[in-house]
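User: I'm writing a tutorial on reading structure tokens. Could you give me a worked example: one chain, its sequence, then its tokens, then a sentence or two explaining what the tokens reveal?
Assistant: Sure. Here is the example chain.
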Amino acid sequence: MSSQWIRFGLILTAVVLLAAGCAPTQVAPSPAAIASSPAAVSSAPTATATPPSKTASTTGTSSGGDVIRLVLVPENSEARFRVREQLAGANLPNDAIGRTKDFTGTLVIKPDGSIVSSDSQFVVNMGTLVSDQPMRDNYLRGNVLQANQYPKAVFVPKQASGLPSPLPQSGSVTFKLTGDLTVRNVTQPVTWDVTAQVQGNQVAAQAATALKFEDFSLTQPHVARVLSIEDNIKLELDVTLQRQ
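And here are its predicted structure tokens:
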């Protein structure tokens, strides 16, 4: 090989080595650089916010507009007791009837027909019950009912069986109203048979139930003129309720 070709090969080798030494060193890009590059940004998946799951609230309470509140109108209402007695000198038994208009009442009904017991009650002033015999009234108030010590009889409604829901704006309805009756600090469950006539915002109702003297630790009256008294007390209510 001639010296000319040897010299050309040496020059070519030197050029190749020089080019390799001058080329920039390839450094792996940092994660931050990758993230900030336009390509990385455009290709990165977009995070989608997941909306919180909707759960039904179980703590909500009915507002005043969700219930029907019926308030008793005393001047158009009456509470009564009725007891069958046999008086001396009378040929046939008769009913001793005591009456009063001195009582109050509120009945609160939910849309489903259930009773809001915490807001519902009827209270009768026992000391104002009067019949056609003042002597009988004094004996009942003083000895049987002990009205000076226990002046109020209180009924707290708890359930209305058969009450239509929603309550109609007019027409007749019948149902049974069950709750707790307290007389002389003795509380017993009682059920009233109720017939009501609904007319707009007003309800006229008749209710009746029966109990025995011993149910409330009451002593049957024993007086000279009364020969016998049945151990059955009928309670009756004629009430007018106004929707509010």
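What the tokens reveal: The first helix runs from residue 3 to 22. The chain has one domain: 65-243.
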